[in-house]
């Protein structure tokens, strides 16, 4: 995903640097391009996107510095009050920590599950095609429903304790509940990761694997020396989307723990939902701004790193 | 064939079956079995067979108490227009971004695909919608979903249109076709595989979404299916009605499962070809 974005941006930059005359087609091409591909085709999309995605994100740099809430009629400037509040009561650092831990664990689970499934179901047989669909099923179920299913499974009187013959309060630990909830996230999306890894595996040239076989490499060696490195684009795509996507998580956490126990799974969106419900709009907006900044801080190094790796390939 | 390879030949399908049974079979059975139990048995959500089967009564109650029919219509009324807008607006923009050069075009492209990474600012969206008089309305929800998913569709469609030879368009233009005609007759039909994938993905996300629906639509008479499920499940705290929650889950999931079964091959090839280039 990001690969192509980078490539096109680089190409566009190269095109404008090379002046108009330097382009492939003759001079005068540009004006004709304007006639053949009028800009107003892009206008509605740009307007909707700017109005309902960019503008709210810009406003998000303003409202956190106000006293906007359900308890005032007007809105006035309040400086850094909201930020000192969330920093002093510990919720700011906690939200950053829980969200990052959740994102890393969820990305890990999703990719490990997906890769294992892809390797198990690699051959194109009818048996495998059927089970690919089976493992894709969780992707189709809403995340909220998935959360409730696992709340029931992990209930103290629930199915997991019944199967294991134990009596463990699975969702009651302030340390391990986070791991479990992120594993549920990985379970929900493993089918998507599996499909992308399958496509990656299919893209590996057969003669490469043949050469490895001739050289006497075993299955294990072939995997680590050839197949896994060749899966790089799939890994990149899966890890990026999983990391960014899971930082925006809400449904699964809300349905399993609601942020508990003792706020140990209270990620950004859960906090925003709770505080907004209390009418503290500006405070929720402050947290939303921090989430934005955290996502940017994670995404930019990620994208830059990918670009660098792409140049090496 | 080496001995390990021979063992693996049988161990692999066995492992697949075991994993499928544990990872998908158990949750699926729990949902289906519990949704057929009377409340007394469903209090403990275990894997036992229902002692008394009453699926009809449960599904009937979930439908009426959860107001599922209204929820279904409400979901449809926001998801369908959002999907259409994301596809149509996205395709128009992608065409221009794929075919035209220049600093302004590439800046607009970079800006409109920024939503791939950036999170939507949900709190200020509420503020903005209130000022526009769109809070708690379907047009407001549609606008928010469209804004959120446009980036994905523009990104995939731009990449795809770049692979369509320009000569196809030029041939139509020789015959005197207007840009609108070229777009509708040449580009849109060729975009079909991407459109299929984008439709599925946007539908999946919007159909399941509860977070943004909470802020924009709230409870009320415009509540979508996930909001209805949340309401039923929140009553769970006091009533312990797992049987109703799971009956709701089954009915709510059926449309997406049906769509997948119908369009399975397209979805699989679309997802995989779009992701890894």
UniProtKB/TrEMBL annotation, chain A:
Keywords: Cell membrane, Membrane, Transmembrane, Transmembrane helix, Transport. Its main location: membrane. The chain crosses the membrane at residues 39-59, 100-121, 133-154, 174-199, 230-250, 280-304. CDD domains: TM_PBP2. It holds the Pfam family BPD_transp_1. GO terms for cellular component: plasma membrane. It is a multi-pass membrane protein. GO terms for biological process: transmembrane transport. Residues 96-302 form the ABC transmembrane type-1 domain. It is found in: Cell membrane. Residues 1-13 have a biased composition (Low complexity). Residues 1-25 are annotated as: Disordered. Gene3D superfamilies: MetI-like (1.10.3720.10). Belongs to the binding-protein-dependent transport system permease family. This is Binding-protein-dependent transport systems inner membrane component.
């Amino acid at each position: 995903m990001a690969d192509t974005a980078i490539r096109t941006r680089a190409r566009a930059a190269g095109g404008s640097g090379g002046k108009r005359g330097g382009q492939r087609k003759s001079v005068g091409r540009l004006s004709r391009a304007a006639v053949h591909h009028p800009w107003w085709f892009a206008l509605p999309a740009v307007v909707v996107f700017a109005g309902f995605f960019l503008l709210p994100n810009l406003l998000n740099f303003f409202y956190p510095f106000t006293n906007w809430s359900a308890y005032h009629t007007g809105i006035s400037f309040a400086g850094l009050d909201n930020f000192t509040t969330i920093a002093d009561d510990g919720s700011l650092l906690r939200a950053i920590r829980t969200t990052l831990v959740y994102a890393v664990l969820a990305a890990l689970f999703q990719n490990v599950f997906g890769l294992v499934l892809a390797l198990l179901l690699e051959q194109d047989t009818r048996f495998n095609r059927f089970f690919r669909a089976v493992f894709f099923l969780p992707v189709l179920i809403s995340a909220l429903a998935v959360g409730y299913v696992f709340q029931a499974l992990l209930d103290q009187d629930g199915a997991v304790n019944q199967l294991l013959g134990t009596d463990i309060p699975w969702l009651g630990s302030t340390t391990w509940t986070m791991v479990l909830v992120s594993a549920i996230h990985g379970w929900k999306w493993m089918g998507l990761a599996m499909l992308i890894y399958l496509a990656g595996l299919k893209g590996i040239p057969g003669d490469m694997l043949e050469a490895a076989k001739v050289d006497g490499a075993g299955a294990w060696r072939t995997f680590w020396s050839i197949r896994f490195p060749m899966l790089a684009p799939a890994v990149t795509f899966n890890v990026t989307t999983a990391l960014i996507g899971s930082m925006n998580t809400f449904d699964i956490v809300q349905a399993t723990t609601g942020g508990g126990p003792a706020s140990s799974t209270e990620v950004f969106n859960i906090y925003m939902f709770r505080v907004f419900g209390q009418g503290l709009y500006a405070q929720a907006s402050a947290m939303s701004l921090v989430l934005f900044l955290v996502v940017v801080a994670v995404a930019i190094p990620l994208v830059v790193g990918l670009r660098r790796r792409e140049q090496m390939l | 064939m080496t001995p390990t390879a021979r063992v693996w030949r049988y161990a692999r399908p066995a492992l697949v079956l075991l994993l499928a049974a544990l990872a998908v079979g158990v949750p699926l059975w729990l949902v289906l079995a519990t949704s057929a139990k009377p409340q007394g048995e469903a209090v403990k959500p275990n894997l036992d067979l229902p002692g008394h089967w009453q699926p009809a009564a449960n599904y009937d109650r979930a439908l009426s108490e959860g107001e599922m029919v209204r929820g279904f219509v409400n979901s449809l009324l926001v998801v369908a227009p959002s999907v259409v807008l994301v596809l149509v607006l996205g395709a128009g923009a992608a065409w221009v971004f794929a075919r035209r050069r220049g600093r302004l075009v590439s800046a607009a492209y970079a800006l409109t695909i920024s939503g791939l990474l950036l999170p939507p600012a949900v709190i200020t969206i509420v503020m903005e919608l209130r000022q526009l008089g769109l809070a708690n309305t379907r047009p407001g929800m549609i606008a928010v979903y469209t804004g959120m998913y446009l980036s994905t569709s523009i990104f995939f469609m731009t990449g795809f249109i770049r692979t369509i030879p320009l000569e196809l368009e030029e041939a139509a233009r020789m015959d005197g076709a207007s840009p609108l005609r070229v777009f509708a007759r040449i580009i849109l039909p060729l975009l079909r595989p991407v459109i299929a994938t984008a439709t599925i993905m946007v539908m999946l996300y919007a159909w399941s979404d509860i977070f943004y629906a909470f802020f924009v639509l709230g409870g009320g008479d415009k509540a979508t299916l996930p909001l209805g499920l949340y309401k039923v499940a929140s009553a769970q705290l006091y009533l312990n009605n797992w049987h109703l929650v799971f009956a709701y889950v089954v009915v709510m999931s059926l449309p997406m499962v049906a769509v997948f079964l119908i369009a399975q091959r397209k979805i699989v090839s679309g997802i995989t070809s779009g992701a890894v280039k």
